Amino acid sequence: MFVRSIPWAAQARRSRAIHSTAHAQRVLRVLGLESSADDACAAVVTSNRKILSSVVCKQHDINRQYGGIHPIAAHEAHLRDMPRAISQALSEANVRVDDLDAIAYTRGPGMFGCLTVCTTSARALAASSGKPLVGVHHMQAHALTALLTEEKAPGFPFFTLLVSGGHTQLVLAESMSKYRIVMTTVDNAVGDAFDKVARLLCLPPSSTSGLGPVLEEYAARPPLPPYDDAPLRLPLPLEGRNKDTLAFSFSGLLSATERLAKKEAGVEMSEAVQRAVARAFQTAAVTHLADKVRLAIDTLGFPVKGLVVSGGVGSNKYLREQMKAMCDGIPSGPIPAYYPPIALCTDNAAMIAWTAILRLQDGLVGEPFDLPIRKKWSLEDLYDDVPASCYRS
Ligand code: KG4
Ligand code: ZN
């Protein structure tokens, strides 16, 4: 018989009196699972901001064969890697499932097949152990990573620039659970643009990282002749009459980069062209991001306490420097820029466990096993399908 289970709703009501402040006082230990794209990740994190373990199984070799993330191949790899990631995360943290306070997983957004792996793994663990289950929004987790990693965490409200393979958004984090999307890309995500340009330039794939870091590395190499005296330049997206548009765009820059690379390379791509075009593209993409964030800060006038840069592209050193320079140069007074460490900027499960901890401390008791996976999920619709009975009143 199929039992529609909302395990934590009834328990929440029963134990409200006993546990009303328990999560706020006790150190919580949560296992997080993440598999929304091409990394199978498991981590154990505590509410006093200790990452006891963080395991990330990457799929660079598979992505290289398919020229990007292949949904079925990525799903299969997650099915292979997730059990190993979980067992390693538990053993490195030196905990058993019984010692945990909750099991957390990415419920969206992401690739549906990939999301099913962390979802069913977490639900099976929660069902067999009787532990609370928490489904986390992947982009909220990127946004809240700075609260885990920063000694002096940014206060709300803060801006968060989420730059990954699937997203390019400037988001106003008004509180832990309330977000407003201020700007988004009208076409490609910036990470996708980095990956496409790296492929266009035939940059050598790395077995330890994706293509974005390879492009960054080429852009940082000193230019070779004839480009040492005359660097290449690319036009900034959404300039001219679109200068005041509050949006990001990368498709025009991608086409311009392709034209430039073809013109410079002629019949054969050389390292001189690879370095020069990589640098021109990175400069234009990052300048565009910094200019548009500055436009939002100047025109919208939100009293933000900081800018948190997160998502895979947030590990780019040039982007970090340019964002810091932009934040330092704001005439009404500098705002601090925050960058999670690189391993926590790219996809990881520590951020999923951490976000679950914040939600538990904020009154969540646990979620049903039958909430839908949300492959598309706006940060503005956060947890709108979680029944009120899942929260302590
Ligand atoms: O957040 P993330 O790990 O996964 C997604 O949710 O998409 O971001 C992955 C994206 C990829 O497009 C990757 O090439 C890009 O972030 N990326 C970078 C760098 N590191 C990762 N792009 C530019 N520079 C980097 N250092
Ligand atoms: Zn991500």
Automatic annotation (TrEMBL):
<keyword id="KW-0012">Acyltransferase</keyword>
<dbReference type="GO" id="GO:0061711">
    <property type="term" value="F:tRNA N(6)-L-threonylcarbamoyladenine synthase activity"/>
</dbReference>
<keyword id="KW-0819">tRNA processing</keyword>
<keyword id="KW-0808">Transferase</keyword>
<dbReference type="InterPro" id="IPR043129">
    <property type="entry name" value="ATPase_NBD"/>
</dbReference>
<dbReference type="GO" id="GO:0072670">
    <property type="term" value="P:mitochondrial tRNA threonylcarbamoyladenosine modification"/>
</dbReference>
<comment type="function">
    <text>Required for the formation of a threonylcarbamoyl group on adenosine at position 37 (t(6)A37) in mitochondrial tRNAs that read codons beginning with adenine. Probably involved in the transfer of the threonylcarbamoyl moiety of threonylcarbamoyl-AMP (TC-AMP) to the N6 group of A37. Involved in mitochondrial genome maintenance.</text>
</comment>
<dbReference type="InterPro" id="IPR000905">
    <property type="entry name" value="Gcp-like_dom"/>
</dbReference>
<keyword id="KW-0496">Mitochondrion</keyword>
<dbReference type="Pfam" id="PF00814">
    <property type="entry name" value="TsaD"/>
</dbReference>
<protein>
    <recommendedName>
        <fullName>N(6)-L-threonylcarbamoyladenine synthase</fullName>
        <ecNumber>2.3.1.234</ecNumber>
    </recommendedName>
</protein>
<comment type="subunit">
    <text>Homodimer.</text>
</comment>
<dbReference type="GO" id="GO:0005739">
    <property type="term" value="C:mitochondrion"/>
</dbReference>
<dbReference type="GO" id="GO:0046872">
    <property type="term" value="F:metal ion binding"/>
</dbReference>
<feature type="domain" description="Gcp-like">
    <location>
        <begin position="50"/>
        <end position="354"/>
    </location>
</feature>
<dbReference type="InterPro" id="IPR017861">
    <property type="entry name" value="KAE1/TsaD"/>
</dbReference>
<keyword id="KW-0479">Metal-binding</keyword>
<dbReference type="InterPro" id="IPR022450">
    <property type="entry name" value="TsaD"/>
</dbReference>
<comment type="similarity">
    <text>Belongs to the KAE1 / TsaD family.</text>
</comment>
